[in-house]
Amino acid sequence: MTNTLTTAYNKNSAAHVYYFGFILAGLLYAVCGMSFDELSAYFKNDRASTAKGGFRKVRIKATTADLKALLPKALLLGSADMLLDEKWNKGEMFEKVITEKFTAEKWVKDSVPFFLAGDAVIDGVNVQIKLNGAELTNEKILTRYGFLG
């Protein structure tokens, strides 16, 4: 099922470059400029809870072994504690860290759909910013916007 959801997502996404973050041994890393195909090695099928409708979703979930293998390509950003915030979750904080490190912009939480823009524009390119464990997409969103038949 991952293929149906990820194909629809990738076909309609405004960004095809990814900044993938992960935590290893209490440190925060980012692999910058990954392609969709490179990131797809870490896609996992998942489902929303029955209470939320049980719809299918795809998560980005690399194993510890995967993360160790990515270390030579990764940029060390600092302590993972920088993701701790009372207002925002770790994924939102990772987006803030990347946006403010690689652009001149101050990060502001938004809800712009993936098919209109990436999470940030870095070096003139729309990028999606994802932390390990994040949801890439789901059946509910893709159906809502008409990307699943």
Work out the number of β strands: 8
Rounded to the nearest angstrom, the radius of gyration is: 15 Å
Total domains: 1
- The helical percent reads 25-40%
Largest sheet: 5 strands, mixed
> Average pLDDT across residues?
95
Structural class: alpha+beta
Measured between the Cα atoms of the first and last residue, the distance is: 14 Å
Name the beta content range. 25-35%
Number of helices: 5
Residue runs with pLDDT of under 50 for 5 or more positions: none
Backbone shape? globular
Adjacency order of strands in the biggest sheet? 5-2-1-7-6
H/E series: HEEHEEHEHEEEH
Structural features, described:
This protein has a five-stranded mixed sheet with strand order 5-2-1-7-6. A three-stranded antiparallel sheet has the order 3-4-8. It starts with a helix and ends in a 5-residue tail after the last helix. It is about 30% helix and about 30% strand. It has helices spanning about 1-10, 35-40, 65-70, 90-100, 140-145; strands at about 15-25, 25-35, 45, 55-60, 75-80, 120, 125-130, 135-140. It is globular. The longest helix has 13 residues, at about 90-100. The protein has one domain. Strand 3 and strand 4 form a beta hairpin. The protein has five helices and eight strands, in the order αββαββαβαβββα. By secondary structure, it is an alpha+beta fold.
